[in-house]
Amino acid sequence: MDGPADIEGGLALSVDLRGETVTRQVGWRARRHAGVIDIDARGAYDPLDFWDPVYARKQNGIVLDPDEFYILASREAVSIPPDFAGRDDALQSARR
Predict the structure, then answer these.
(1) Using one digit for the tens of pLDDT, what is the confidence trace for 66-92?
(2) How would you label 38-52 residue by residue, b for 16+ Cβ within 10 Å and e otherwise?
(3) Which residue from 3, 2, 5, 15 is spatially nearest to 80, judged by alpha carbons?
(4) pTM of the full predicted structure?
(5) In 10-91, where do the E strands start and end?
(6) What three-state secondary structure class fits 15?
């Protein structure tokens, strides 16, 4: 892209609901009562102590609990400059 990005109204991304070829994993759901971590201790923790894997269903979909925190992969590559911040907002799906 040449020139500054026009993201005034936001940037829509799609979630990869196909997942990895073998496992069909599409993301992670945070465990509710995991312990506090030291963010400076890289590699010191087992991710499964804090996250549960989320797998795609046979129809390439997932059901999200609105009271849970998820990390999902987008189909598009995203790079946010260090002097900017990113935020995700819930959008209603166009497909039902």
Answers:
(1) 889 888 877 787 788 888 877 776 655
(2) eeeeeeeeeeeeebe
(3) 5
(4) 0.66
(5) 25-30, 51-55, 70-72
(6) strand
